[in-house]
Each structure stands twice: as C-alpha cells, then as structure tokens.
C-alpha cells in the first residue's frame, strides 16, 4: 500500500542551514548534509531544501550543495527557492536533485511549468502555492506570502495540474507558524478536485495535527520544519503513532 | 568491475552514480556504444516522457544496442518501461525485451503514484536478503500489469509488476538509488549477479 509521506523542510542560506536548528547530536548545526542524513536515518520519506539566499553566487552555491546532498542522501529530495527558468532546473537536476519546486516564477510565467514538465517529466515539478483567506476566499500570495494576487487557490491549483505539475505543495499562510494544525478543509477540497498528490504545509504542532491532515485533509504528504528541527516531534515516534491510528506509514 | 550508466539525456542520473559510489563502485555515464558493450554491468536509467526518451535512444542507435547486450542490464523506472514492447505514454513502441504493454493507471487513486510502497512476491537473486513487503520509492503514472516474467509485484488500486526479468535483462519500476539502504542492497545484488 502506498504510504503517506513525512517531509522535513530545511531552509538554506548560502549553502548552510539557517540557524534555529537545535540538534544536540550535530557537530555542525549549519551543515545541511549532516542534518539531512539524520532525517534520512530517522525514516523521513523525503526532504525539501528551500534556498533563501539572495546573492549573485546563489546558483553555483546551490548546485554545489545539491551535488553534495545527492552524494550522501539515499532518499528523494526536492529543491526550491528562486527557480525561474528551465536552465535553473536543468542545473539542479543535473546536480542530483530529484524534483524542483517552483512558486512565484510559475505565477509570473505559467508556461514555465509545462516547459519543465515536457523536458524533464511531470514527476520532477512540484508547484508550491502559498495562500491565505481574504474575506473567506483563498487567494494565492507571492514572496513568502507577503504579496497578494488575484488568483484563487483552487483555480490556480487546477491550472498548474493541467500545465503538467506532478505535485502541489500547499502552504496555508493562515496556519503557518501557528502550530494549530494544517488547513484541512482547503486541503481536502484540493485533494477532491485534483488528481495529483497534495503536500500539506503550514501549521504542524502536534502528532494529532498530522493524523488530522491525512484523515480529514486527505493529504498525500505532510511537510514541517520547526517541530522536527527543535525535536518537539521525533519522526520515528510520529510515524509509530500514525501507524497505530491506521494510517499507511513506512517505518 | 566496469559499470556503464546509459546517458541519453534523461533527468537525474547522478543519483545512480552516487548510490554506486556509496557501495564502493565507480561507474561511467556514457552514450558510447563501445563503452556500453565493454561494461560488466549496464544500468539503463530513465526519468521523463516515453516517446521523447525513445527518440533520443533512436538518434544515438542505443535502441538497437540495448536489446543486443549480453551482460546483466538493469532498467530503472522509465528505463524498465522502455524495455517493454509498448508504452501507452506517447503511443511509444518499446525495445521489446519484455513482451508486455505498459498502461496508464486508470482508477480513482492519485496519478502519478508518488512515494513509498511495498513490494512482494520477490523472486531471483536481485532480491537476495530483501524481505517481503519492503518499502521502495516510486514515481510513475504508467505501469506493467501482472505478467509472467514478473519478479516483484506491488499494489496501487491494482496488483501490478514492479520488477521484470528475462535472460540477462532486469527491470525495476521503483528507484533503488532513492530507496534507502534496502534500495542500495538491490543495486548491490544486481552488481553481484553471476
């Protein structure tokens, strides 16, 4: 049986994990590879690396990091952050990334999705969508949720599926950082209206939240950062507990 | 031990190279017919779309070379699918090593299937030391229905074949290079096949 995926997300700046990660066993808390290895050994199903650096050198630094990750990590990983062209994608995939996630660039130039899908296959295109509710309507936001657009979440999600996205990573800006649970109603609607997998993001605080997003939100995967980095939730405990609740989980 | 990874412009092949490195083997990414023929083991990767992948194979003559190889050959994911006689994706005629058609998932489940699924009914030395119902990482929209040359099955709405074997040819739908230590063991088994 296909299992639900648990995906830790690591923020990367200039080739290093952004501080705020609290692992006592890490010799170097800024080393993304060391951290990724620990997650892989602890049954994370996939990893997401989100590059937030803004330097001229970012493309080269990121490609080098991706190659180092691919050398050492034996589970799939996605790379996102500032990807704006087919050439960016080609470089990252060639360096060893399994998938790329595109966000703002897809909104600005939707054809980018189909160009990537045509050249490298849908399986490597994750479209990240940040959205929050404005007057009860889910509106897509850009620049880490700061810039609202007129796009409706569900319309946009259907459009990216048509254009060839392989998965959708939906982050609810209303839930992100609250630790009060995922946006399960919107997630369930996405899952109902689309046929590609949906990754839930934003709001993880407890094990119960993961159970809810799989059962109520119908999510195919759940992504979280701080609850894992600060060891508020250990992935093996999380997975054991979810499995005992009847959810298909790889342990 | 010379291992050739067939290079025909397919997506992420670095991962296979790195997985072999972790196992202590070096490999060569190549589209050169002589290098492929001279290798002890050949890995035929594949990520992407069937008809364009087949076009690339034809443009380099690899479509004739691969079926004629005599050393152990392992097709991975789309590589395995192209070793079959036909792929529904892009209405593509395959290499006809495995006499079976690759069809699209047609059920109420999410397509593509993305993630870790169990494999069972394991046969041949490829799965030495691998337990029934081990988890493997898969990403695919098309599949090989239950088939006589199947050496492993999985289930996604239907029971289907995730590994095939005929003579010196092996094919796996899952990504051993992305399936943790168990996946690496399968790659090691392939290299050690006698």
TrEMBL record, chain A:
Write the record's keywords in alphabetical order, separated by commas: Amino-acid biosynthesis, Cytoplasm, Histidine biosynthesis, Lyase
Outline the subunit composition.
Heterodimer of HisH and HisF.
Note whether Lyase occurs among the keywords: yes
One Pfam annotation reads His_biosynth
Instruction: List the molecular function annotations (GO) for this entry.
Output: imidazoleglycerol-phosphate synthase activity; lyase activity
HAMAP family referenced in this protein's UniProt entry, alphabetically = HisF (MF_01013)
The reply on keyword Protein transport is: no
Write the gene name: hisF
Q: Which InterPro entries match?
A: Aldolase_TIM, His_biosynth, HisF, IGPS_HisA/HisF, RibuloseP-bd_barrel
Which enzyme type, at the first EC level? lyase
Where, by residue number, is the active site? 11, 130
What name goes with this protein?
A: Imidazole glycerol phosphate synthase subunit HisF
- Its primary localisation, in coarse terms, equals cytoplasm
Localization: Cytoplasm
Q: Which GO terms describe its biological process?
A: L-histidine biosynthetic process
> What is the organism field in this record?
Psychroflexus gondwanensis ACAM 44
GO cellular component, as recorded = cytoplasm
Q: Lineage in the entry?
A: Bacteria, Pseudomonadati, Bacteroidota, Flavobacteriia, Flavobacteriales
UniProtKB/TrEMBL annotation, chain B:
Taxonomically, the superkingdom here is Bacteria
Catalytic activity, reaction form: 5-[(5-phospho-1-deoxy-D-ribulos-1-ylimino)methylamino]-1-(5-phospho-beta-D-ribosyl)imidazole-4-carboxamide + L-glutamine = D-erythro-1-(imidazol-4-yl)glycerol 3-phosphate + 5-amino-1-(5-phospho-beta-D-ribosyl)imidazole-4-carboxamide + L-glutamate + H(+); L-glutamine + H2O = L-glutamate + NH4(+)
Quote the subunit structure annotation: Heterodimer of HisH and HisF.
Extract the GO molecular function terms from the UniProt entry: glutaminase activity; imidazoleglycerol-phosphate synthase activity; lyase activity
Q: Where do the Glutamine amidotransferase domain residues begin and end?
A: 5-191
| GO biological process annotation, one example | L-histidine biosynthetic process
**Where is this chain's protein located in or outside the cell?**
Cytoplasm
Role according to the record: IGPS catalyzes the conversion of PRFAR and glutamine to IGP, AICAR and glutamate. The HisH subunit catalyzes the hydrolysis of glutamine to glutamate and ammonia as part of the synthesis of IGP and AICAR. The resulting ammonia molecule is channeled to the active site of HisF.
What is this protein's name?
Imidazole glycerol phosphate synthase subunit HisH
Predominant location category = cytoplasm
Species of provenance: Psychroflexus gondwanensis ACAM 44
Q: What keywords tag this UniProt record?
A: Amino-acid biosynthesis, Cytoplasm, Glutamine amidotransferase, Glycosyltransferase, Histidine biosynthesis, Hydrolase, Lyase, Transferase
The record ties this protein, via Gene3D superfamilies, to: 3.40.50.880
Q: Which EC number(s) are documented for this chain? A: 4.3.2.10, 3.5.1.2
Pathway(s) served: Amino-acid biosynthesis; L-histidine biosynthesis; L-histidine from 5-phospho-alpha-D-ribose 1-diphosphate: step 5/9
Gene behind this chain? hisH
Per the record's keyword annotation, is tRNA-binding included, yes or no?
no
GO cellular component annotations, sorted alphabetically? Answer: cytoplasm
Q: Where is the active site?
A: 77 (nucleophile), 175, 177
